[in-house]
Design brief:
It is a single chain. By secondary structure, the protein is of the alpha+beta class. Helix content is 33%, strand content 30%. The strands form 5 sheets. The chain has a 6-stranded mixed beta sheet with strand order 4-1-3-13-16-17, sandwiched between helices. Strands 8-7-6-5-11 form a 5-stranded antiparallel beta sheet. The longest helix has 26 residues, at 95-120. The chain is flat, with a radius of gyration of 24 Å. 35% of the residues are buried.
């Protein structure tokens, strides 16, 4: 005769399973919270030399992790934690495509930072055209499933091009359904793929069916190296620029101070707005930063700088929040208020 399991024990077992699921099983939400503040002196080298000046320039980050029911509920109780949907974070991109896009942003940020720093230091350089970055691909493209977001197309029908305009002119000079062979770089490997051109919805001309932008590389006598394999996105641009610039001019801009900040950078040295600056303020303050550079844009309502000031006030930090529109403004502040 089988022994019956008491209802109470079954209910306790069921409750335990539910609790385990709440703690362990991921849900389709992500938690954004204060991330790491990372010193750049060991991550950026110029001409094979590390930054040996006192103090530090640091990038700041937003920590992102997939939520469980338990961590999502806990995040709701935290002042600087936000719960976001996967769509809000990644759009329609897959996890792989999202990571590739972040890597593209990081590489572009590094490239722009080198350009901006060389310009500030009045050092000569030129830009080498490497091909076109793939930022998106139409599902009806013959190359869908072959090339991926973040790849670089370097040749079409064995021909190199000197600009994206030349690339597009060649492709659009052909007819819809014409077959072409493209050569592209994917994860460091050169590959080839062939397929027929499609009719582009934007202008009705023939095309591969990709969204693209220039892939360029700075060519300079000054050798700049980055060791940031586990960091993605564009928001470290300003701080990269300051780190590179200080090493180029061999002048102590920090005078022993801990300086953090955020903001994208373009090749002209303009600082752009970013997301999650309130969380970066918390991270920087907790790391001991004394000064924080925040992007400011009067035309767009100062979103970043104002949010940074609110967050700094909320945590009652002594860290100074300094608004900057350009890398040049940040350098000017350092030379006038910080440097020896």
């Amino acid at each position: 005769m089988k022994r019956k399991v008491p209802i109470k024990r079954l209910l306790l077992l069921l409750l335990a399973l539910i609790l385990m699921a709440c703690v362990a099983l991921p849900i389709s939400y992500y938690i954004e919270a204060p991330g790491s503040t990372i010193k750049l002196d060991t991550l950026v080298k110029v001409n094979d030399k590390k930054d040996k000046f006192t103090g530090s320039f640091s990038l700041t980050s937003v920590g992102i992790r997939q939520a469980t029911v338990a961590t999502a509920l806990f995040a709701k109780t935290q002042a600087f934690s936000d719960l976001v949907t996967k769509e809000a974070l990644m759009g329609t991109a897959s996890d792989d495509d999202y990571n590739r896009i972040q890597n593209f942003y990081m590489e572009t940020s590094q490239n722009n930072a080198i350009t901006a720093a060389l310009t500030l230091a009045d050092q000569p350089f030129k830009m080498d055209y490497l091909g076109v970055y793939v930022l998106g691909i139409e599902k009806n493209s013959a190359f869908y499933g072959k090339i991926k977001i973040g790849d670089t197309v370097v040749k079409v029908d064995s021909q190199f091009f000197k600009s994206s305009n030349d690339f597009m002119k060649y492709v659009q000079s052909k007819k819809v359904d014409d077959k072409v062979t493209i050569t592209y770089l994917q994860d460091g490997k050169e590959k080839e793929a062939s397929g027929s051109l499609i009719k582009l919805p934007s202008n009705g001309k023939a095309g591969i069916g990709i969204t693209l932008t220039d892939h360029t590389q700075v060519n300079s006598q000054e050798k700049v190296q980055f060791d940031v394999d586990n960091i993605g996105g564009p928001s470290a641009g300003l701080m990269f620029t300051l780190e590179i610039y200080q090493q180029l001019i061999k002048q102590d801009l920090r005078n022993g101070h801990e300086i953090a900040g955020t903001g994208t950078i373009d090749s002209q040295g303009n600082v752009g707005q970013i997301g999650g600056i309130d969380k970066k303020i918390v991270s920087a303050s907790e790391s001991g930063a004394e000064i924080f550079f925040a992007p400011v844009d009067l035309e767009k309502g100062d979103t970043n700088y104002q949010d940074a000031k609110k967050a700094a006030k909320k945590i009652n930090t002594k860290m100074k929040v300094i608004p900057v529109k350009t890398a040049q403004e940040a350098v000017k502040y350092l030379k006038e208020h910080v440097a020896k």
